[in-house]
Design brief:
Layout: E1 10-14, H1 19-29, E2 33-38, E3 50-52, E4 55-56, H2 57-62, E5 66-70, H3 76-86, E6 91-94, H4 98-103, H5 108-111, E7 119-124, H6 139-146, H7 148-152, H8 167-190, E8 194-199, H9 200-206, H10 209-212, H11 216-236, H12 240-251, E9 261-265, E10 270-274, H13 278-288, H14 304-322, H15 326-335, E11 340-342, H16 353-357, E12 361-366, E13 370-375, H17 399-405, H18 410-418
Parallel strand pairs: 1-2, 1-6, 2-5, 6-7, 7-8
Antiparallel strand pairs: 3-4, 9-10, 10-11, 12-13
Helix pairs in contact: 1-8, 6-9, 8-9, 11-12
Amino acid sequence: MASGPLNGVKVLEFTQIIAGPMSCQMLSDLGADVIKVEPPGGEPWRLQGQFIPLESKVFQALNRGKRSLAIDVSHAQAQEAIHRLVRETDVVVINYRPDVAKRLRVDYETLRPLKPDLIYVDNTAFGRAGPWANRPGYDIVVQAASGLMSSVGKVDEKGTPVVPPAFADFTTAYSITIGTCAALYHRALTGQGQKVETSLLINALNLQQNQVMSLPAADAAQQAAFMSALTSARETGTSYADFLKQRDGILRAGAAGNIYYRSYLTKDGAVAIGALSASLRAKVRAVLAVEHNRDDPGYDAADAEQQRIDLALTARVEAMLSAESTAYWEERFERGGVPVSPVYFAQELETHPQVLANAYLVELEHDLTGPQTMLAPPWKMSETPPAAQSAAPPLGRDTDAILGGVGYSADEISALRANGIIR
């Protein structure tokens, strides 16, 4: 029996790749019964990097705790089965384009009459309105469209933009989960279902709050300088990498002289510190035994002489850090009260004592591929503790049980399988 606060909630999932599957995995962690609808051949992420047929690590990482219904929703008979399921469902989560959902008869307008209090959570790449509404889009495309890729500002040796991690997908997963829980709360109070919409685009934009925000009283001159430089760069054919340097000079003046909130190379790796208050910056200076006027009333990071001072100090501190080990500086900063961590690789963290002490990993057993260690649900609750319910399901493992649960006989299920409608 699921232990989380959503125990008893039934979710029907029509999603693939990252954002939708991750959100529905979190809903399962919170106790919901999640049925993942996949085509009989499997969703694309199941097929990405298969290490045995129809199983991939990326799929298993994002689909634990679910039941698998492998069914071809393009068939009328399959749509009838889906509609039977919807009548017993609380939440539908979908990430199809509008034309696809309507064609497959799983759009909100079709499903709502079947279940008037249905919560229908709709995720798209770019939102349902506007000239890009029907465009397909993945995280990489949305990161480019939203400015997130250029905000991160990494380039390869050829000067080509480097794709960051799937920030838009991962943040959208949390957005879907929050929207679903809010709608369930509203329904509990009023009895009303509703349609909830989000998109990769709005979540990618939300990661850049102050950069997208326009506040003329604070940034009119800076914004004008940036747009003028950008227009000139495009007219003259300035390379992307070269313009990033110009952009940083305009928007991040003084950042090169920052010794307080950054990472440093050490003798054997790297370490990061974070000091965003005057009191913490004073602690950084105490640890390093340096003087700096950063918190004096007249400090101006854009002043040329101040920049000379700051850059000289930065070079001095970088040399200091690089002369000793990561462990040495971690101990010094920690003892001095400065927020600090070595720069780890994700692959190291399975045995990190902090991760283990908080039970941030769970051990599961997959039906086909055996033992695995995964990240735990991202919440702890004293009364309704979330839990990883099970490993990700093999394709179509639960098809017969799910269809049988809505009245299909064994002969009817066999006929659907013989016609290639289910797996």
